[in-house]
Amino acid sequence: MTHSARLSVDIGGTFTDLVLLRSDGASFSAKVSSTPEAPEDALVTGMLEVLAAAELRADGLTEVLHGTTVGSNTLLQKLGARCGLITTRGFRDVLEIGRLRTPGMFDLTWDKPEPLVARRYRLEATERVRADGTVMTPLRLEDVLAAGRFFAAEGIESVAICFLNSYKNPVHERQAATAFAEAFPAIAVTASMDVLPEAGEYERTSTTAVNAYVLPPLRGYLTRLEQKLRAHGVTAPLLIGNSNGGLSSASVAQQKPVFFISSGRSSGAVGAQRLGAATDEANLVAFDMGGTTASAALIHRGVLARTHEYEFRAGMSVPSRFIKAGGYMMRVPTVDVAEVGNGAGSIAAIDPAGLLTVGPRSAGAVPGPVCYGRGGTQPTVTDANVVLGLLPPLLAGGSLSLDIAAARAAIDRQLAQPLGLSIEAAAYGIREIANANMVRAIRAVTVERGLDPRDLTLLAFGGSGPVHAADLARTLGITRVLFPPSPGVFTAMGMLAGTVEHHELRALAGRLDRVDAAEVAALSAEMQQAAVAQLTAQGYEAASIACSYEIDLRLDGQDAALSIPFDRFDAAALRPAFIAAYRDSYGYTPTDAVEAVVLRLHAHAQNSEPLDFRALKAAAPGDGGGGAARREVHFGRGGAQLTPVLRREAVTGPIDGPVIIEGPDTTIVIPSGARVAPNATGSLVATLEPAR
Q1: Quick one: three-class SS letters along 189-246?
Q2: Cβ(387)–Cβ(640) under 8 Å?
Q3: pLDDT at 558
Q4: Contact 505/278 with Cβ under 8 angstroms?
Q5: Cβ partners under 8 Å of residue 641, min gap 6
Q6: Is there a contact between 367 and 347 (Cβ–Cβ < 8 Å)?
Q7: Is the pTM of this model over 0.85?
Q8: Dist CA 147 CA 89 (whole Å)
Q9: Angle of helix 404-411 relative to helix 423-445, nearest 10 degrees?
């Protein structure tokens, strides 16, 4: 029998994870080292590995799903295109003015992020559109062309065009973008009306500038990737994971990369939601720990928390309802994730005050942790875990041999001796500090939202999530921890649970009780027609496209809005729904008037069935570790314990901790006082004793 397959790939800062789902339900996975200089090389290497394991040829793939860190790394490392901005006269400094906020009121060391467009490249054009959409001052096209000549002479690669009130009437932006593209075809152009046709001059300008900044690097990467896939015989379409946890065609990603900054990371949260539904777990914290960062997302009452605003910054990134102002703002649909710069590759060091710190700097894939033997010299969280005996001598399915002696020597020389500690105590300190940092991310999506984490289940995945999950759960009082099938590659698996998405929005204005239902109906029909046209052009049948609607509402005089879903517009029913959502979010029941801000449409399409965890059949695993039956493990300050070490497939019934469970993609650590058992989906469920 000839099989076909879908391939999902998540490229992280340290490892590239691949999952191949064959048409008979069998899954095959691989974890290979990332190649930061050319991320597509690791993808091709891993693809050939899983195709061989599944006994398939490249032309047997029906879809290639891809989550990439190219967009986020471009922002983090400031490696984007040289950018220019053309805006309405008098508005060139909107990017620097921002929201006039600081992320911490008393942090005197904080520096505002440098705008992605330098001031000398932020130019003005004579034009003006009023707030009601009428033209006050016609566009002077010569200003646009003069700016283009200056940009071309200066070597500018990408330009953002953002005019005042263009969301209400885009005529000037359309004229400027068309004229600029015709006159300067070598410079990429992003018009705000194509990215965010919504009120809010700073938000729209920032989102458009981010799109312009990352567009050339991401477009170049996806072009190279498609060429390499075709060269290896892949004829399947390439779909890119977006920040909302869905999928879009590579052509869309090349035009609107701002929607893909959090590509990949959000897919793990979508997979967590689908796994929760399969296991009747409606309240979950999805915890993902990779090599560079750790993140947390909330699934409450079966619904994954999402937002329409996201800010990219280094260090701790918290959900959007909190004042941040410390990074680059993007108003795009995204999974609401709290992220901290702490992963398995995070570097441990002694700061100038003599204190032990962990992260946010990471050893990444190159040179990697000291124990990888690839030139790394600074101890990391992985080095600490291997010294403590929590990790096996072999990782990544047995392909990576760890140098435990080198890890011990690095921790001893750089940390233990200066601090007057034993090697094991220093390693345990690294782990404890990393755990404390990661607890912050989980608290941000639970305690800071008024939710008691003790009422939730912790779903741990990522290459290192299961190594730390039990400790994090105990700190938070969580008594139930879920380890999914193949947790080390679960983010890639989550993409297989996603659908192709398209988003449309139209601005509204005025009090909710005065919104014209006929206007909403006309805008809804217009958005649906645009979405269906986009998706059918990508090869999806109109009958397979499903649409849902939301309306952004806010209190009269406020700026922040909440999205309220609806099937049929009814102002009388939407007001109490908004009041209930406001009470859930802020703990206060308002009586003020309610304003309508934006109408949204979410369209979904698919050519194949999304992943069903209940039907998943894992392939025979490779050697997940060193094969030892027992080894010395340091769980805490009480010294080493001789601990059983089991292969994951050997866990067929309840087992009491302490025990180390090794698989080809990750290691699961179960401490004393906990019991672990498999469930019907192939997940492992650990039950911990309640905290005293």
Answers
A1: EEEHHHHCCCCCHHHHHHHHHHHHHHHHHHHHHHHHHHHHHHHCCCCCCEEEECCCCC
A2: no
A3: 87
A4: no
A5: 632, 633, 634, 635, 658, 672
A6: no
A7: yes
A8: 13
A9: 90
